Amino acid sequence: MEQVELSEEKRACLVYVTATEAGRHKVRAGLEGSGYTVCEVKVENDAAIAAQAGETELPAALVACISGSSLCVFLLPEMENEDCILGDAAGLSNQLGKRTIGIVAGARMKYPPTFEDQAESMLRLGSERLADAISGAEIWEKPDRSIVSDRATVHIRCQ
C-alpha cells in the first residue's frame, strides 16, 4: 500500500466591515507572505441588525471561514458603532481555539470584550509588526503605534 503524505496547509480567515474594506489588501498580502491561504468574509450591517433582533446565528460563510482556519484576523473600524458582529465572530474564533488578531483603523482604544480578553495581538492598520503578530508574537499597539508595555496578557481558554 502506498503511503501519501498530506501537507498541512495554513489557513487564515480575514474578517472585515465596509469601513475597513480598503485596508484588507495589505493584511491579506501579509498573511499570504507568511504562507497562509486566506478566506475573506465581509460582515454587513444586516447581520448586526439580525443579531440585535434575536437571530443569534452568525452567517454561514463566516462560521465556515473561522472553523476552517487556524488564524483569524479581524479588521476593526475606527468607530465602535461600525463593528457589526465582529465581537461575536471573535468570540466564535476563541471558542474554537483559533488564534485571534485584531487590526484597528484610526485612533480607537476601546474594543469588544472578546478582543480585550482573548486576542493575541491588537495592531494598527498598516503596522510594520504585522508579520511578527502573524508569526505568534503578542503585540498590542497604541494609536501612535508604540507598544502598550503595561498590558497584562492573561489568556484563559475555557474547555
Task: Describe it.
The structure is a single chain. The chain has 159 residues and is α/β, with parallel strands linked by helices. The protein has a single domain, classed as Rossmann fold. Helix content is 30%, strand content 19%. The chain has a five-stranded parallel sheet with strand order 2-1-3-4-5, sandwiched between helices. Strand 1, helix 1 and strand 2 form a beta-alpha-beta unit. The chain is globular. It starts with 9 loop residues before the first strand and ends in a 25-residue tail after the last helix.
Describe the structure concisely.
The chain has six helices and five strands, in the order E-H-E-H-H-E-H-E-H-E-H.
Overview features:
159 residues, 5-stranded parallel beta sheet, 6 helices, Rossmann fold, alpha/beta, disordered N terminus
Radius of gyration (CA) equals 16 Å
CATH fold-level name:
Rossmann fold
**Count of domains:** 1
Distance from N terminus to C terminus (CA atoms, Å) equals: 39 Å
Report the CATH C-level class.
Alpha Beta
Strand order of the largest sheet: 2-1-3-4-5
Structural class: alpha/beta
Q: Please, what is the average pLDDT?
A: 86
Low-confidence stretches: 1-6
Helix content: 25-40%
Count of runs of 4 or more consecutive helical residues: 6
For the largest beta-sheet, the strand count, sense and barrel status come to:
5 strands, parallel
Order of helices and strands: EHEHHEHEHEH
| Count of DSSP strands | 5
- Assigned CATH superfamily: Response regulator
